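Changelog entry: the Lds_1 protein record was regenerated in this release. Current contents:
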Amino acid sequence: MNHQKHALAWLMWREHQNPPGGVLADDMGLGKTLTMISLVLKTMQCEYTDGDSDEGSSSNLRSLKPLGGTLVVCPASLIGQWDGEVNRRCKKGLLNVELYHGTKREKAPRRLARNDMVITTYNLLSREHKADGVLFRIDWKRVILDEGHVIRNHKSQVCEAVCDLTSRRRWVLSGTPIHNKEMDLFSVLKFLKCSPFNDIRVWKRWVDNKNQAGHDRLATVMKTLMLRRTKQELMNSGAVENLPEKSTEIIWVKLDPEEKIVYEKVMLYSKTIFAQFLHQRAEKEHMFKMGAGLYDRPRAVNKNPFNKAQQKLLAQHADVKSHQILTLFLRLRQICCHPSLIDAMLDQEDIEQTGFDEGEGLAQRMASIRLDVDEEAPDGPSEVDDRVSGNLLTSDNPVFERSRQSSKMRAVLELLQSILEKEEKVIIVSQWTSVLDIIAENLQKIRVPYNSLTGAVMVKDRGAIVDSFNHDKEPKVLLLSLTAGGVGLNLVGANHLMLVDIHWNPQLESQAQDRIYRFGQKRNVFIYKFLCSDTIEEKIKNMQEDKLELAKTLLSGGGRAKAAKLTMDDLKTIFGL
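Regenerated structure tokens:
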């Protein structure tokens, strides 16, 4: 396609600039993989001399390490896609490709370096980094990071690993290079060795300085390093054929009365703990300023803002930690999907995403307290509804039964039935495998065949699941984990996609949608977002819009971007304080 030819010309030009490489940020589904394979082949034909490719790698390292070809680092689910694309598009023997994955991978650096292309995963690269593995003992001609937003945390092991690779040219591929904040781009510049902005001190002084000049400076740098085209832009210009229509529908769900009572009790608990957290924070700030001589006396104690019921809760939390607030935030979101989820310990996905362990179960802590409405403190307000005063959070409460259909589950299954009647395929997406498990149990009850693609599925088995779903008549339902299946997969066999729960990061949802809305899709696409009204999900939706605006302003070089971190004001809004 013409847009890919234009991208190839730009890639070859950038490889002779400083720094050699850049960011290919085309929309998902525009063929970034094929474009990079074309770059590898074209440069092999041109036979660049060593003098042309000396940038970005020290001569000392070069004398010690064998010269390798192109290293592709990607999520585990995309290894097969890269290998398959080379086999489909290139004549046999034209490109020598090695999959550096699994137990039988090559151990000798010189033998591995003989390949034109080596494909590996972020997880494996991180493990090798600790032991100075084979990948770090080769002077690579080129390193390509597919789904490069994986390295957005500049302090993470995976970011440190990719930055320590020896390479002459560096490329980042991502349709969503910004997920949360401007700082996401620092990791990209650090990997690209874009001096001086790969230095955190320079970054904080000249870019992350909370003013318009810093934003403009970043926009200018990214405009130089990045090529980005959207599907809509290319369709409007006639560069590519038009895709079918895409429609997004928000399906508002009202919690059942018994679910609403549980939600309100957890919300009351959360608001109380968060209020204590704010109080502690203010006290510590005041004491710090008093130590610096700004105040000469302790802070005056105001009238007690908590009633006796809330004081009972606070007695168990003399020192509230920030991770406890985030745990409550998580549990409120899970109640909206199915109340039984809050009675379980954090699963592995939660731990990976939030970076903490909950310890003692939330439900067990709250169940031990009875919030009695008549226990009002003399100087504190009564805010406890009699509906939430009892011991609701116990295993005896039928609302926590896993077999019970929650209000959101009913809405999902009703819509699913109507889609299946049309003989069309649907993908059901959740960020929690526990939610997918509950949906699977309900599908078994109504005898609807389905398949699952989550992190628990072996990498070698994922390709067969995708091919079966796209080409076979059955199954018509695929349960997809947002984190495991949200990147790189081609699932155009379906034209309906359900997002069961809202994620704090809207870019992950955008990636999931582009699994079915991409070139090759022949039918109109329907996206459904299930949100519980008058809950925390409604507030997260509003915050998502701010995050998407941040990405739009930075990637288009538009006006000043809003801060996208989860701020204290955001939490106050969420908890209604």
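Residues 48-59, 344-389, 559-565 have pLDDT under 50 and may be disordered.
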